[in-house]
Write a structure and sequence with these properties.
4 domains; DNA_helicase_UvrD/REP; Helicase; helicase; UvrD-like_helicase_C; binds adenosine-5'-triphosphate; seven-stranded mixed β-sheet; alpha/beta; 26 strands
Length: 764
Amino acid sequence: MSNEMENRMEEQLRVDAVIDEINIKEKKLSSQITGLKENVVELRKNFWEDITVNIDEPDDIIETQESIKQQAALLSEKERYHGKIGEELKTLDKLKSSPYFGRIDFIEESELERDQIYIGISSLMDQGEEDFLIYDWRAPISSLYYDFSPGKAHYETIEGPINGEITLKRQFIIRQGKIQGMFDTGVTIGDHLLQQALGNNASTTMKSIVATIQKEQNKIIRNEKSNLLIVQGVAGSGKTSAALQRIAYLLYRYRGELNADNVVLFSPNPLFSSYIANVLPELGESNVKQITFLDFLKVGIGRKLAVESPFEQMEYVLAEMKENHYVTRMNSMDYKSSLNFKQMIDQFISYLNDEAIQFRNITFRGSMLISKGKISDYFYSLDKEISIANKMELVSKWLLKELRQIQRSEKDKDWVIEEAELFNKEDYVKAYQQNEDQNAEDEEEILRREVVRRAFATMKRRIKRMEFVHILATYKKLFAEWNPPVAPEGWEEISEQTATNLSRQFLTWEDATPYLYFKEKLLGNVHDRSVRQLIIDEAQDYSAFQFAYIKEIFPYTRMTLLGDINQAIYSHISKDNPLVPDSGQGSMERITLTKSYRSTRQIVEFTKYFAPGGNLIEPFNRDGSKPLLTKISEQVDLGEKLKININEFKEKGYETIAVICKTLKESEEIVNILQDKMRVIQITEETYAFEKGVLVLPVYLAKGIEFDAVIIPDASEERYSQESDRTLFYTACTRAMHELSILSLNEPCRFIKAVPKDKYDVAK
Ligand SMILES: Nc1ncnc2c1ncn2[C@@H]1O[C@H](COP(=O)(O)OP(=O)(O)OP(=O)(O)O)[C@@H](O)[C@H]1O
């Protein structure tokens, strides 16, 4: 028997032994969980029987409450434990099919014995709880596997670095408990496994990459020191994958201190959120909160204003060039994305400290209780040194005090008793309950109090929410009456356009963040202080203003920004982006990824010629066919050509075939052309999950996602005519894993022309 076969048999025996251990452990836990389940059911059933309920005397009430609390605590402890075992069982089930994916043999310096370290998605100890049969991929020692080839190596522990030597590095593919592949690797984590992982069809949900994390990705995943970690990585370099493994790593590393609720991920669109939703559960972790920046802003802005989405803005930029106010709007976007506009708002706010904040009258039953003039006078009588937000707090307290007085005098009016006459039984009970600590004896008095309490309750709530400040009207003044000390060119037109939108209660995307920033400067911000880690994917699409805002509202939060400046589709905002080197960000660490894993070598070799930044892009060595360019001379042929293309891809076994358009408008046209020829799925801003098939979508919704085959339905010079279209075209082409097909009505665009002819085929 060859050495290789012998090794494989030995390894299979070990896999079998580990699976035996898993089975034993599983049995133990299953019997525990059954017992626990019965226990919990019993506890729930007899909850009240085990409690002595006695409400005769105050002391008895306290005792009863205590007894209920204890019983509830016992129940919830058992339920939590039940949940924990359930999770453990799920992990064991995964381990049973594929217990580990890697092994290293390591001899620590000054020790003679060689440790065999097997690495999988979770740790497993032997029955005696003495030795690790499997090490979690996130354990300190496991970093050896990702960072070193055989030879001298070291890893960090809390007590300091451990040095030694790796004598063997082995990779496994184990499915259903059987070793299907086994490779001893040299330099990096071998091509075999990666080739296999990347050669598969795209799926509608992202997969974890634990078994094949590359050294440079591991740096991102295990980085613990930086408060701000910035990752610039070319398309398909594994930024999103690394971000998700990083979250799993941090949850493991800081278990007990950090849980999924403390981590927030800003994702580019709802489709992307569902695309990545599986990764953390697959790694045995709970999902963290994922939200688009649009939804995040909407929570703060409130429901009364309509907010444009970034995609609507994008569609305007790309499709409404002929609109009368286009140039003004573009200038407005430019300026409002910059820190200059933030400065302008700050200047406006200091002006507001002296005058001009708009308030609302407080009215009740059609008459004025407190006028906006009176509120304004009170506000401006307060010390100027106090911040506006703190002064608003004082105004709110003052208003509530005034209201209490008015409430007392209102109580004796005739309308009150008329309303009380409409009370039903429940209202009576409520009235008496409310009266408990006021001790009124007279029934009429009790009812009158209840009527006015109710009538004033909404008003009080609104005052607590600071609704007495007219934020929109005040913000509008920035564009209407106030003269800024420094203004950009065309400010008058920008102001006019903005004021018109605000009058329609409409916030453009470029106004959304500034408006919320402004609102919070006036009213104070109420953001969740428990966010300890914020991850921003597709960070190239955030403006300098948006970043500055995010930093202000999360002052103590560690941040990881990942993106690719080459894919900055909102070209007007990329100037001050932190992904650009030397963008002047403070203390931070920057990691650059240059290797692209998603697409075949042929696709990367094609797309890198029109990559916007001209940065280094190295393809991972996976072969496929060259991109194909098909020239069409008549628009009427498009449908037929698309159909042929799609059918060819289907025959090759591809399951996700995306027709990626420049705009939503174009994608609607394509759907119209295709829908009587085959089943097509149109993806819009409202699509929350996608299925396999033929998908038609605008490029900005394809961000972060990948497909087996991509078709660009019209890559003509007419369609992609501007330099600013470069990032869009690049983003669209780089979504392809295995095949890229480009159709062009007449002359292909300048980006294709920049590619040497030997890098693509032209259809006859
Ligand atoms: N180490 C790895 N092992 C296996 N697959 C990997 C690895 N790194 C990246 N990939 C695969 O490469 C593809 C691209 O990864 P990912 O989407 O994370 O890249 P990205 O940098 O976020 O891309 P983009 O910016 O273009 O959206 C995915 O299919 C991912 O699974």
